[in-house]
Structure formats: structure tokens, C-alpha cells
Amino acid sequence: MIDLRSDTVTRPGAGMRAAMSAAIVGDDVFREDPTALALEERVAGLLGKEAALFVASGTMANQLALLVLTQRGDEVLVGEGAHCLWYETGAAAVLGQLQLTSIGTGGFFTGADITANLRPPADWNARVTAVALENTHNRAGGRIWPAEQRRAAIAAAAGSGLRVHLDGARLCNASIATGESLASLCAGVDTVSLCLSKGLGAPVGSVLAGPASLVTEARRWRKRLGGGMRQVGVLAAAGMYALDHHVARLAEDHEHAKLLARAAIEAGAPVTEPDSNIVMIDLPGASSAEVFCGRLRERGVLASAFGPSRVRLVTHLDVSRAQVLEACSALAQLVANV
Ligand SMILES: Cc1ncc(COP(=O)(O)O)c(C=O)c1O
């Protein structure tokens, strides 16, 4: 099967497994795991932040950020379709007792969208205290924030006294696609989360970075939520390996996504050229995405139904060029016959 459901399906290869097996470990709750500490220091440096914390998942990283940036009852502004609104099982409401408000369109927003959603500081209003961006944006199809719009939105948030979190689960994809450094992509944000287990191919793990005081508070929350992980160096070593070997190659995944999109376009689907490794196909004639994915599966390709007639394909390091070309022809045949 050619599995294009998500870039989370990758399995650690021999090199990564060897690095995991050789990892020097200690008790990370005592801050004695040298590999975890080294990973945190490395990622903090890459993201241009003071400190970082290795955590179990992208969801945990996002939620820890919201917990340390806000207080109970606050309101957080997020882009349309934000992962923390759609896919984190209501965690912001359950853990932080926060209200998330979706602003802008297509995952992005402007400074004007932020200011239009601020509330006068009357005691009957919730306090709007934070904004969260997502780059690349999953539900928007791996879209990358236009640089000027991103900077303006971050500046507007800061100018209104709001804290800013960046869900950078796929920030390395944004960096490779645009040539902008990770640190520059995170400039002006308070906290940023980066996933090691998506396009980077580690089996587990994300890193949350930000000012040392907030990361210390996030560590307390991580323990409170059961995320203190002891000899976690075996997992951090996979993250280190991923940063050494799997960042530059994301360009290949982006090229593969363009091939898939082109195949669908040539067969008659109005697909937008992808920015990164995610392709969204709105089926002609509003056909059923479930039925379409079933037919693709019969041809050896796995994809996700992402809406009634929207299909998502994600490229990653466990799908070769030859497999992508095979998927292209299956896709073209099916789209042409929808
Ligand atoms: C943009 C984005 N943020 C966060 C996450 C959450 O990551 P995890 O599945 O590790 O909790 C995902 C997962 O797909 C994602 O796409």
C-alpha cells in the first residue's frame, strides 16, 4: 500500500533505530537525561528561543503553550480550521478552561481581524489574551503564511498586548519551502511547538520552545498531566537523528506533492498548487470523498476523506518517487472518471 493518509505514518529506519539504541539516558524528570537536554538545547537554538521542552506530542506542546500563556476563562484567537480548535479533543476548554474563537479565512488572519475581535475591558467580557498561528496550516492544505501577513499579524497581536503561540508542527516544511530560517519564522512569537514525528519521521515527540520562565512553567504542567517521561533519551535520540537527516529532504516531499496535484489538475480537478507536502482535492461534481478513497484503496493508495467531497494526500519520507508516480496514475484515472 502507498500510504498518503498522513506524514505521521512513517516508521523509524535502521539509522534512526541505531541512534535510539545508542542513546545515553538518565531520568529526565530529574533533568538527568543528557540526550533529552541536548535535543531541547538544540531546538531552542534553531527556533531562536531561550529554552525548550521535549514533550509527547504536538497536542501536548500546543496545550502546554495555551496553559502558560493564559488564565482560566480567557479567550484565544485562532485561524479558521486551527488544529488546536478542531483536533485536540476540546483540550483547551477542558484543561485551560479557555474559549477559542476562530478568526480570518483559510487559516490566516490579519491585524484587522485581531483588533476586530478584541473586547472592551469590561468585567462582563472575557479577556482576549492570546493568539495562535499555525504554519504550515494543516486544514488549509499545508499552506504557508505569506511572510508579510504573518509579520503584520504578529505585530498587531503584540501591539494589542496579546501573547502569541505558533503551532509549528510542520514549521520545517515551511522553512524548506520558503528558504526562511526557523528562527526567522518564529520571530516575535512567545511560544512555538515543533513536531518531530510528522515529516521529520521520528516515532514520537514534539518540542515546545519559548522564554525560560514559560518553559519552566510548561515543565510543571507537563508533569501534572503525566508527561514526565524518565529515560526519554531513546526518543530524543530519534529526534536528533531526524534533525540531522530528515530536514533538507522535505524538499522531495514538496516536489512529490506537486506531482500529485498536477496529476489531479490534468485529470480535471480544480486543485491549488500545494505550498508544502499536503494536497487537497475537491472532487469534481461534489462526489463522495469516502467512495473516492475506497476506490483509491482498491488501487493500492491510501488517502483521507477530509470533508464530504474533499480528499487529503500527504507526502512523506516513506513514500518513494516511484510510488508517487504510481499514485499519480491511479489518481488521474479516478478523477477523470468521477
Ligand atoms: C498542525 C498540527 N498541529 C498539531 C498536531 C498534533 O500533533 P500530535 O498528533 O502529535 O498530537 C498536528 C497533528 O497532525 C498538526 O497537524
Q: Taking Cα atoms only, what radius of gyration do you get, to the nearest Å? A: 20 Å
Bound molecules: pyridoxal-5'-phosphate
Helix/sheet category = alpha/beta
**String of helices and strands:** EHHEHEHHEHEHEHHEEHHHEHEEEH
The CATH topology of the largest domain: Aspartate Aminotransferase, domain 2
Major sheet description = 7 strands, mixed
CATH class of the largest domain: Alpha Beta
Strand order of the largest sheet: 2-8-7-6-5-3-4
CATH architecture of the largest domain: 3-Layer(aba) Sandwich
CATH superfamily of the largest domain: Type I PLP-dependent aspartate aminotransferase-like (Major domain)
Summed up, the helix count is 14
Shape: globular
Structure summary, number of beta strands = 12
Approximate helicity band:
40-55%
Number of domains: 2
Q: Which residues sit in consecutive blocks of at least 5 with pLDDT less than 50?
A: none
Average pLDDT figure: 97
Question: How large is the share of residues in beta strands?
Answer: 15-25%
Relevant terms:
globular, Aspartate Aminotransferase, domain 1, binds pyridoxal-5'-phosphate, 2 domains, alpha/beta, 14 helices, 338 residues, seven-stranded mixed beta sheet, Aspartate Aminotransferase, domain 2
Give a verbal description of the structure.
The protein has 338 residues and is an alpha/beta fold. It folds into two domains: 232 residues, Aspartate Aminotransferase, domain 2; 88 residues, Aspartate Aminotransferase, domain 1 (Alpha-Beta Complex), CATH 3.90.1150.10. It is built from 14 helices and twelve strands. It has a seven-stranded mixed sheet, sandwiched between helices. The mean pLDDT is 97. Pyridoxal-5'-phosphate binds next to helix 3.
